[in-house]
Amino acid sequence: MKFRTDPARTVLLTAGLLALTACGTTVAPGAGPAAVSATPSATPGTDGAARAAAVERHDRLFPEVAARCAGKAETLPTGASTPAELPTDQAARKYAENHGYKTQARLTPAAQCRGDAHAARIKAALDGTDGKGMPRTTEELRALLTGLGYLVESGDVFGSQPQYLTFVLSIPESGPCVTGYLGAPVKIEAHGVYMEGGCHEPRGGH
Fold it and tell me: Could you say which of 60, 94, 116, 143 is the most buried, measured as most Cβ atoms within 10 Å of its Cβ?
């Protein structure tokens, strides 16, 4: 038994297949073929170029940090971004799951170097090398950090007493985060952003 081919039916089927294969592709109104959007994995150079430009801006702002971290890799070693397995012990596993929101992004060698360099830079200023001594109020701490070239936003400096003053900063342009505690002793450390975003430790889990 032979089937007859209907030219009109063939055209309709072909058009339908073309429409299906185009699903998921977005074109901006009035844009040509070059404006077709792509997933991040399809354009790996875009984020890399933006990141490199941000690092260059950072290096112009903080040349001494740039000199210290020259040559450090801006990417994680192969396999370094693989999440750690959860503990097999049920209690430990539950604890890890409940506190997963505190997970921080891994830092590349370059980002870790920049963070450590900024932490040391701030520590030196807090040690009173300029003769002013340790800040005793949030206003004094904010002024010190601002004078060092950091953007201090609302909520980045807090604490009711000198020994409890704390700050959380995002290093301009390139990151990472730097958190400091003016207790005894002073503790300042660099870290990646939290899973839920930002440099401030989330206050609750899921």
Answer: 116
* DSSP conformational letter for 83: P
The pair of three-digit structure tokens given for residue 115, joined into one six-digit string:
């963070």
Neighbours of 42 (CB within 10 A): 8
Task: For residue 167, give both structure tokens.
Answer: 């700050």
User: Strands (DSSP E) along the chain, which ranges?
Assistant: 157-158, 166-170, 177-181, 187-191
Compute the distance between CA of residue 48 and CA of residue 59 in angstroms, rounded to an integer: 16
The beta-carbon contacts of 136-144 under 8 Å, at least 24 apart in sequence, are 136/162, 137/162, 137/165, 138/165, 141/165, 141/167, 141/182
Q: What are the tokens at 162?
A: 């000198």
Residue with tokens 């354009």: 43
3-state helix, strand, coil in the chain (%, to 5): 45, 10, 50
> 0.70 exceeded by the pTM?
no
Q: What percent of the chain has pLDDT over 70?
A: 63
Residue 178 CA to residue 199 CA, distance in Å, equals 8
Tokens for 202, please give them.
């989330």
